[in-house]
Amino acid sequence: MADGEGNHVKRVAIPELLDSDAGTESEVQAALADLRCINRWFGGTSTTLAMLKRVMKHAKGQELSLLEVASGGSHAPEAAAEWAREQGNVLHTTCLDRRFSHLLGRKPSAVGDALHLPFANESFDIVSCGLFVHHLDSPEVVRFAQEALRVARMALLINDLVRSSIHWAMVWTARPLWRSRLTRHDSVASVHRSYTLEELQSLLQRAHPARLEIRRHYLFRLGAIVWKTY
């Protein structure tokens, strides 16, 4: 399969250390701090804000609720809430992760399974996730999208990586930047596990959204808006 740069790279599901709880508590906290830097420097936060701006144009009213799935250190929802305040809007954020320790005491928050979200239908206006979907195999991507659309009233926002040999080379070169050995391993593994735009578009269509928008963003990021209503 050809990637976006004209090279050939196969998706390989390499296990990530942060997923397997292979690190000490201090290593996990260092990895979460690394993720904050990755989001700030390499397009993570800007991609989420770009999608949120798009959704808020269609929102009725100035007050919305957002569920951030696999939120980790809650970097993206914090930035989103701050941006909304600057625009004169209110964004109520709730964070969900599989481990309480990853939430760093953020409130409101919940511990749960992303494929079986512990919320009633249409509990939030928006469901969002960052650097999560590449952890899922193809059937799980479809299942997650269906579950997120069940819980959302408006849309699911997916912020993730684009698989590319050039991207892999860039991430490998950047390994010395990171404090945690977990990040040095997982950053490379994440690119191997990521989807191309075409692959993810095909999977998300199987969730039968009202509309799907997916595009490239800064430094091999992709943003997908999976609309429940449009």
Helix and strand run? HHEHEEEHEHHHEE
Oligomeric nature of the chains: single chain
Q: What is the share of helical residues?
A: 25-40%
Provide the CATH superfamily: Vaccinia Virus protein VP39
What is the CATH topology assignment?
A: Rossmann fold
Beta percentage is: 15-25%
Q: Give the N-terminus to C-terminus distance in angstroms.
A: 32 Å
| Overall pLDDT level | 90
Query: What is the number of domains?
Result: 1
- Using the alpha-carbon principal axes, give the shape: globular
Q: Please, how many helices?
A: 7
CATH class label: Alpha Beta
Main-sheet strand order equals 3-2-1-4-5-7-6
Output the radius of gyration.
Answer: 17 Å
Q: Which stretches are low in confidence, meaning pLDDT under 50 for 5 or more residues running?
A: 1-6
| Structure class | alpha/beta
The biggest sheet amounts to: 7 strands, mixed
Strand-helix topology:
Layout (H helix, E strand, L loop, with lengths): L24 H17 L2 H15 L4 E7 L5 H12 L3 E8 L11 E3 L12 E7 L7 H14 E10 L3 H9 L7 H13 L3 H9 L5 E7 L3 E7 L3
Helix pairs in contact: 2-3, 4-7, 5-6
List keywords for this structure.
single chain, 230 residues, alpha/beta, Rossmann fold, seven-stranded mixed sheet, 7 helices, 21% strand, globular, disordered N terminus
Describe the structure.
The chain has one domain: Vaccinia Virus protein VP39 (Rossmann fold). About 40% of the residues lie in helices and about 20% in strands. Helix 4 links the parallel strand 4 (about 125-130) and strand 5. Residues about 1-5 have low confidence and may be disordered. It has a 7-stranded mixed beta sheet, with helices on both faces. It is globular. The chain contains 7 helices and 7 strands. The longest helix has 17 residues, at about 25-40. Helix 4 (about 140-150) packs across helix 7 (about 195-205). The two termini are about 30 Å apart. It is α/β, with parallel strands linked by helices and about 230 residues long. It has helices at about 25-40, 45-60, 75-85, 140-150, 165-175, 180-195, 195-205; strands at about 65-70, 90-95, 110, 125-130, 150-160, 210-215, 220-225.
